[in-house]
Amino acid sequence: MATHVLLIVLPALLFSVIMADHIPLQDFCVADVGNNRAVLVNGLSCKDSKTVQANDFFFSGLHLPGNTSNPVGSRVTPVTVTQLPGLNTLGISMARIDYTPWGINPPHTHPRASEILTVLEGTLEVGFITSNPDNRLITKVLSKGDVFVFPVGLVHFQRNVGKVNAVAIAALSSQNPGVITIANAVFGSKPAVSADILAKAFQVDSGVINKLQSKF
Length: 216
Ligand SMILES: *[C@@H]1O[C@H](CO)[C@@H](O)[C@H](O)[C@H]1NC(C)=O
Hints:
Blueprint lengths: L1 H19 L53 E6 L13 E7 L4 E6 L5 E7 L2 E6 L7 E6 L4 E4 L4 E6 L5 E7 L7 E2 H6 L7 H8 L3 H10 L1
Antiparallel strand pairs: 1-2, 2-9, 3-8, 3-10, 4-7, 4-9, 5-6, 5-8
Helix pairs in contact: 3-4
């Protein structure tokens, strides 16, 4: 009986400890970009808090449209810990996303963050795909002012289905959410995954894989 209680309580206790660890134990840890000292917090060292300035918590430029002249017709302008060192340890970040008509933000995942997306201008078709074995597509068309959430780790995408440019703002639950763009990761890895592995995985001829690999 005691063993059973322990089996239930112990994971819950560990889980709560892990959750508590997400709350910073200091006001902030402004990432000391470029200084590789021995003590790192979330992969970055902290600036001496006495030298911290307002600009460490500041980013300017999200009013500017991103350049969408590229094969997918979209541009993500990220504001993560890389662009805004004050985000370090705070567990949040954001991005502006611009889309030309029929432009897509291709299928990708954020390994460390859920994403909540708000449409500022235009009309977006959005979707995410649930895990195996269901792989269900959850999709919706969004208009200006609409909000949609992409759960952490799941493959998701957006497409501008309107006649004019679209703009969205995304908020993410990590200062360093990470991005894995499916096509780039699978067909554009360095070095390349063997074409015969991908041919079997995707159930196509290796010629199709070679063509895909040449594009990434
Ligand atoms: C946008 O990107 C394209 C392709 O890289 C480039 O040719 C063009 O000059 C860029 N436009 C601006 C305004 O930066």
